[in-house]
Amino acid sequence: MGETSMTSAIHGRGGGGGACGMVLHILRGRWFSVFASFLIMAGAGATYLFGIYSKEIKATLGYDQTTLNLLGFFKDLGANVGVLSGLLAEVTPTWFVLLVGSAMNFSGYFMIWLAVAGKIAKPKVWHMCAYICIGANSQNFANTGALVTCVKNFPESRGVMLGLLKGFVGLSGAVMTQLYLAIYGNDSKSLILLIAWLPAALSVVFVYTVRTMKVERQPNELNVFYQFLYVSIVLALFLMGVTIAQKQVVFPHWAYATSASICCFLLFVPLFISIREDLVLWNLKKQPPSEIRVEKPVEVELKEKEITNPEPEEKKPPVSCWTSICNKPPRGEDYTILQALLSLDMLVLFVATLFGLGSSLTAVDNLGQIGESLGYPQRTVSSFVSLVSIYNYFGRVFSGFVSESLLVKYKMPRPLMMTIVLILASIGYLIIAFPFPGSLYIASIITGFAFGAQLPLLFAIISELFGLKYYSTLFNCGQLASPIGSYILNVKITGMLYDRQALEELAKKGLTRSDVKELVCIGTQCYRNSFSILAGGTFFGALISLVLVMRTRKFYRSDIYKKFRESVDADARN
Q1: What are the C-alpha distances in Å from 293 to residues 221, 289, 299?
Q2: Could you tell me which residues come within 8 angstroms of residue 256 by beta carbon, excluding any fewer than 6 positions away?
Q3: What predicted TM-score, i.e. pTM, was given to this entire model?
Q4: How far apart are CA 458 and CA 452, in angstroms?
Q5: How far apart are CA 407 and CA 456, in angstroms?
Q6: N or C: which end of the chain has fewer CB within 10 A?
Q7: Vertex 553, ends 549 and 554: CA angle to 5°?
């Protein structure tokens, strides 16, 4: 039985009332599905913790910075090449996508933990690259299963939904840090083990909860999302306060356990909001149709007559594949995969993402080594990673909610917000390139915020320009530029410039590479040239994104959500 027909059958049986029917309605309700998606997303940001456990990999396995950055590239490659999960979602139900992602997450990160913990013989570098690529790629299956499904269930609130879901991904680094400190103590090797089992378990628990449903319009829909936002802001502020406190004071184990418990409680507050909203829908469905009266405007009645007595349509001759690719539909309509990938709009997005997200990933991956090179202690470096995670969240919800508000109220093109974010990011990289006392705190905040803001904007723009029919594949294709940019900017530029500077310092001391196990560079000069290049590249990406602003300004001045409202109204009449 297909997913849609199964859902209809269950709703049909649950519609009779009673406690069992009500519970079933809640568990299969779209608001409970949103809560489940929040938890899955809260465990889907393990890649952002690379800055904490990468030092352990480097020291245990004896890697230099170039090799470590190569691992970082394969992590980014796995995290951003989600075409497989997108194509799989086109032909299989959501539960299967989530199960595949769960298996990949556990197998990839568990093998890394076995290697770092010395449980197996030292793997070859390409083995470690494969493990981290598989583990990181699993988050695309979580994204495709939860994020794409929620966007399809709430198409008129897609910017807000994307901001919230990607916001929880942004918080996941700080959340999982608190959990690992409470469960395992200050042992970064065990953090890898937590990354292996926790996200996999979340996907398995909610495997049948997250699915595509019939779109329903609620007058208070946006207010509910704002309630979710307020809860997530409280969680983010709590995590920020705890992170700062842990930097100043050495916490005993009971304090770590307390902070983790509060964190878990705040994560489950959206559950109560979801149950409340699903109960409202349950009570509405129990009312007889005669009690629900809706006044129809004259315009709606005229439209209904037109739908009831449509004019006969002429059959169009079949169109060849090449003609279909060349004759693209208007923006906002459903593009085919090839039509979208071969469009100029997608090319502009690709270039802007290559520099924007490629630079952001480079900055996040090197944050631990940047702190070390500037003389910060390890505990402070961990707090930088948590700050990036928290402000990553603020960037995501800010870009989601604010860009949606500006779009609805002032018809501001969403790509213009991306231009502003990229300019902000380039300022953050310049602060790293030319540091001053305490500058890494400011750079962590700016970098985390700008990194987080880019993803909801990218995903929303793709859904708006190319439609939702093949969104599972297109949004995964849209972020392919990210690992390419990461490889060029991280491995080929940042890593090599760091190692070159470190070798120069060794030469001044009369040492060679074979004389030391770990290649370390200390000083402000270690990242100056590389992050100056990142700042220039990101600013170029901002200029490129202005091309998309000019190309789409007419489209964004129109009512881009009109067709979704008309579709829901037509379903309601039927």
Answers
A1: 20, 8, 18
A2: 178, 181, 182, 185
A3: 0.76
A4: 11
A5: 14
A6: C
A7: 155
Do 333 and 276 sit in the same domain of this protein? no
Cα dist. 165→320, 391, 439 in Å? 39, 14, 30
DSSP 141: H
The answer to whether position 257 is within a domain reads yes
Whether the CB-CB separation of 489 and 534 falls below 8 Å is answered with yes
The first and second tokens of residue 348, run together, are: 């502009």
Distances 178 to 57, 221, 366, 515, 516 between C-alpha atoms, Å: 21, 32, 22, 38, 34
Considering the domain architecture, whether residues 351 and 222 belong to the same structural domain is answered as no
Task: Please indicate, yes or no, whether residues 33 and 113 belong to a single structural domain of this protein.
Answer: yes
CATH number, position 415: 1.20.1250.20
What is the token pair recorded at 60?
């245990």
Closest CA to 537 of 471, 473, 492, 474: 492
What phi and psi, each to the nearest 5 degrees, are found at residue 213?
-125, 170
- Please state, in angstroms and rounded to a whole number, the distance separating the CA atoms of residues 338 and 348: 16
Helix axes of 528-557 and 496-508: crossing angle, nearest 10 degrees = 170
Q: Confirm whether 76 is domain-assigned.
A: yes
The span from the CA of 208 to the CA of 1, in Å, is 14
Domain boundary among 252, 285, 318: 285
Angstrom distance (rounded) from CA 203 to CA 224: 24
Query: Are 537 and 404 within one domain?
Result: yes
* 3-class secondary-structure state, position 16: coil
Dist CA 399 CA 404 (whole Å): 8
Per-residue pLDDT tens digits of the chain, which is 574 residues long:
444 444 444 444 444 457 787 888 888 888 999 999 999 999 888 887 887 788 888 888 888 877 888 888 898 788 878 888 988 988 899 999 999 999 999 999 999 999 998 888 889 999 999 999 999 999 989 988 898 889 888 888 888 888 899 889 878 888 888 898 898 877 778 888 999 999 999 999 998 889 888 877 777 888 999 999 999 999 999 988 888 788 778 888 899 999 999 999 999 999 999 999 888 888 877 766 544 444 444 444 444 444 445 445 454 555 444 556 667 888 888 899 899 999 999 999 999 999 999 999 899 888 888 988 888 877 677 777 767 877 888 898 999 999 988 988 888 999 999 999 999 999 999 999 999 888 898 998 999 899 989 989 999 999 999 988 899 889 888 888 888 898 899 888 998 998 888 888 888 887 877 777 677 888 889 999 999 999 999 999 999 999 999 999 999 998 887 776 666 666 656 6
- Residue 139 structural domain: 24-285
